[in-house]
Amino acid sequence: MRNLTILDVQAATLPVAATPQHTLGPAICVDVVNKAVYALVNDGSGSAQLCSVQLDTPDSRATASEARPVCSLPFSLGSTGGALASNMQFLMERESVFFGLRSGDIFTVRVGPLGDSGEAELVGTVDSGIMACAWSPDEELLALVTGEARLLLMTQDFDVVDEFPLAQGQQGEEVAVAVGWGKRETQYHGKAGKAAALATPDLRRAGAADDGEDDGATRISWRGDGAFFAVSFVGPSGREVRVFSREGRLHSVAEPIEALKHALSWRPSGRLIAATERLGHRHDVVFFERNGLRHGEFTLRGCTRRVLELAWNADSSVLAVTALVDTGGAAPEVCVELWADRNYHWYLKQELRASSLPGGSLLSAAWDAEDPMRLHVAGAEAYVSVRLHAAADVAHVASELSNAAAVVVDGARLLYTPFRWANVPPPMALHSVDVPMPAAHVAFAAFGHGNDFAVLLADRRTVVLYECAAESLQGNCPAERGRVRLGEGVVAHQIAWPGHSSLVCLGLGAGSQQVVVAVDLSDLPEPTLATRVLDGSARVTRLVAVERPHSASPLLLLAAADGLVLEAAVDEAGAIDVTPLAQLPAGCVEVDAAVVESEGGPDAVVVVGRTERNQLFAGGNLLSSVCSSFYLRRDFLVLTTTTHFVRFVPVDAGLLTAAVSEDDDDSLRYDETRRRVERGSAIVLASPLGDSVVFQMPRGNIETVRPRALVLAAVRRALDARKYREALVNCRVNRIDMNVIFDHSPDSLMADWEEFVKQIDDPDLLNLFISGLRDEDVTVSMYAGTKAREVTRSAVVDQKSTNICRALRPVLQAVDDPRLMPSVLTTFMCETPADIPAALRMLAPLSTDERDSALTYLLFLSDVDTAYRAALGLYDLPLALLVAQRSQRDPREYLPELGHLNALSSEEYRRFKIDAQLGRPELAVTHLCAAYMECAAGAQSEGELWTEFTEYVDAQDMHRSAIRLLGGHRRFSDVCVLLGERQAERGEWSQAAASFLLGGASTRAVDAFVKAKEWRMALAVASEGGASAQTVHDTAVRASAVLAEHHLFLDAATVLLEYTERDEEAVALLVRGACWAEAQRCSLLRQRSDLVETTIRPGLLEAHGVMLEDVREIREAFATKLERLREVRATPLEVIAYSGAAEEEGALDNVDVMSDTTSMASRFSTFSATITNASSRMTGSTARRLSKKGRRKEERRKGRGKKGSVYEEAYLVDSLAKLVDRVRVHQSAVRDMNWALVGFGWLPAAAELQGLFVGVVEMVVGSAGFVFDEQRMQMRLDANGVAEPVPMEVNEQGMASQPKLPKPVLPGFAWKIEAICE
Question: What is the rounded CA–CA span in Å between residue 1216 and residue 1221?
Answer without folding.
Answer: 9
